[in-house]
């Protein structure tokens, strides 16, 4: 990856983490852990991969993105704000009555949201429908969907995967954020989804495994996915839940909890220090 681009994406990812923390803190509720683990993926998607235009969010030929693990929308909202879909001040109004940003993505009220999600498993199904529609309409847009590893416990995920493989949806690219933790603890202990790679291969997917915080690896994976013909793609991204905030990292308790005043101050300080270091290089 070009050094300048990599630095830009690292800075964007850090700002996305800051925005997610800001939103959850002011809402006094929300899901920071999975938002932070996916920040590097959000950064690459919105500032390199997706063919989208914030000035025309409903452009018919745009690429589509579905956040299947909809509870991690604080990270997605931060990316959308940074991209210019709406003012960053909206992040501080997360989950407040009458505000734009709800606790789960709302395609009717939030610019840049292609599908309302929240019930786990449903987002991937909607993404499959979008991809099939693109095929039927002979459009060249691509469809991306981000799932969580805990979400793989939903049977609907595998019904959708069967559908994607059956219809050879090579315009579909799934990303699974494998941070190893869900609300009840380690995914391996709740209902272990492994071997994830073999499961997706059995459903006819091209499968790649990467470090979900390595932007070079993320770039290579997305570039490869665009070359795959005749089958859907999935990128299995190994990540750290709560990445970037020391006391949140690898802690299941930060799946769905807002920081208090002291914790918020620590998180902001750590992320701003990381941002300052990146901007100074």
TrEMBL record:
Look up keyword Coiled coil and say if it applies. Answer: no
Q: What name does this protein carry?
A: Transketolase
Gene field: cbbT_2
Key words of the record? Metal-binding, Thiamine pyrophosphate, Transferase
Ranges for domain Transketolase N-terminal come to 13-266
InterPro entries according to UniProt? THDP-binding, Transketolase_CS, Transketolase_N
The family note in this entry says: Belongs to the transketolase family.
A GO molecular-function annotation? transketolase activity
Tell me which EC number(s) this protein carries: 2.2.1.1
Broadest EC class?
transferase
Give the required cofactors.
thiamine diphosphate
